Amino acid sequence: MAAAAAAAAAAVVPTPPGVDRRRPRRGGSMEAGRERLQDDGVRTLTSAEQTKVEDIVQEVFDVYKTNHHDSQFLLHRDKHFHYLKRGLRQLTDAYECLDASRPWLCYWILHSLELLEEPIPESVASDVCQFLSRCQSPSGGFGGGPGQHPHLAPTYAAVNALCIIGTEEAYSVINREKLLEYLYSLKQPDGSFIMHIGGEVDVRMAMEEAVAVTPVVALEDYCSDTVGYPVGYHSNTYWVTSRQMRFEGGFQGRCNKLVDGCYSFWQAGLLPLLHRALHAKGDPALSMTHWMFDQQALQEYILLCCQCPAGGLLDKPGKSRDFYHTCYCLSGLSIAQHFGSGELLHEVVLGVPENRLQPTHPVYNISPDKVVQAVMHFLKKPVPCPKEESAAN
Ligand SMILES: [Zn+2]
């Protein structure tokens, strides 16, 4: 969208102090600033698909405008809650293919529930703890299910799920010493990580894992040489702000892809991190009330195009709901609603006040309170002393 492009451009063009050129300026209505794809008369498979999606989204917007004269965007909280609650106990056959991702399912559901401020009954929480402890390998990492090989991705999901539960029982599931040993066993001499023993280096996930388990294993040294690489903040900002779709308002995964609800977190979640990094560098053009994307347009996309009427959220109109998209659509919605941290907070909640979700921590993607709670809990414990010599063997 024009605002996103303007925001992105402003990120690389020097801006006079005090002039906020990065703040999205799309305006306050559903009409303002929306731009359809211009294919310059060259129709390709990609442009045809994009036009098709824009037509469907246009239809959704039109139906909404016909039925609602005064905009009252509504998050169907109860429907989503029931869908999630059911999923914690029983899954349909469609989830059979995710048998190696069961800690992920726990995390997606628990995080969605915490965003909706729905408490998890004690007995359910305890059952999840016991289930995840069965997924933990004697070598310290977590597998995708009981008896499966440990892998960094479900390890991240399991640790997050346990920190969301946040009880003594949950924390005690994590064998920190073994977990640390396991992480060292995956670390390569160049600072990268393999995802599992015998696996390939995967920069995207390995970075995330290393950061995500840091509060649990209390390891500043461990991560400092992996996350300290210089980052091109401005080019990153340009790239990510350009991923917000000019017509739909949601985000795409990369150039020439279609909008997808889950990128509401994968892309928009990067902007709080970039904001903080640019702020730390003393950038005078940064807004102190808004992230560098159109927060309202993203909320419109999620609320109008990504909600399944029966509960749960989805990629785009016409797709099926699932727990993964429910988690990341809600996470993105939360990022779009809450600017800032600490004393600098500014909320932009589209629609009725009841649409407000809990804030989420952009690094860990669990509630900031739960991050603090976990850090405080593990700080009281002695730091594990792993056998580092096993690294990269
Ligand atoms: Zn998706």
TrEMBL record:
<dbReference type="Pfam" id="PF00432">
    <property type="entry name" value="Prenyltrans"/>
</dbReference>
<keyword id="KW-0677">Repeat</keyword>
<feature type="domain" description="Prenyltransferase alpha-alpha toroid">
    <location>
        <begin position="75"/>
        <end position="208"/>
    </location>
</feature>
<keyword id="KW-0808">Transferase</keyword>
<comment type="subunit">
    <text>Heterodimer of an alpha and a beta subunit.</text>
</comment>
<feature type="domain" description="Prenyltransferase alpha-alpha toroid">
    <location>
        <begin position="235"/>
        <end position="366"/>
    </location>
</feature>
<dbReference type="InterPro" id="IPR001330">
    <property type="entry name" value="Prenyltrans"/>
</dbReference>
<dbReference type="InterPro" id="IPR026872">
    <property type="entry name" value="FTB"/>
</dbReference>
<feature type="region of interest" description="Disordered">
    <location>
        <begin position="1"/>
        <end position="37"/>
    </location>
</feature>
<feature type="compositionally biased region" description="Low complexity">
    <location>
        <begin position="1"/>
        <end position="13"/>
    </location>
</feature>
<comment type="similarity">
    <text>Belongs to the protein prenyltransferase subunit beta family.</text>
</comment>
<keyword id="KW-0637">Prenyltransferase</keyword>
<keyword id="KW-0479">Metal-binding</keyword>
<protein>
    <recommendedName>
        <fullName>Protein farnesyltransferase subunit beta</fullName>
        <ecNumber>2.5.1.58</ecNumber>
    </recommendedName>
</protein>
<keyword id="KW-0862">Zinc</keyword>
<comment type="function">
    <text>Catalyzes the transfer of a farnesyl moiety from farnesyl diphosphate to a cysteine at the fourth position from the C-terminus of several proteins. The beta subunit is responsible for peptide-binding.</text>
</comment>
<dbReference type="InterPro" id="IPR045089">
    <property type="entry name" value="PGGT1B-like"/>
</dbReference>
<dbReference type="InterPro" id="IPR008930">
    <property type="entry name" value="Terpenoid_cyclase/PrenylTrfase"/>
</dbReference>
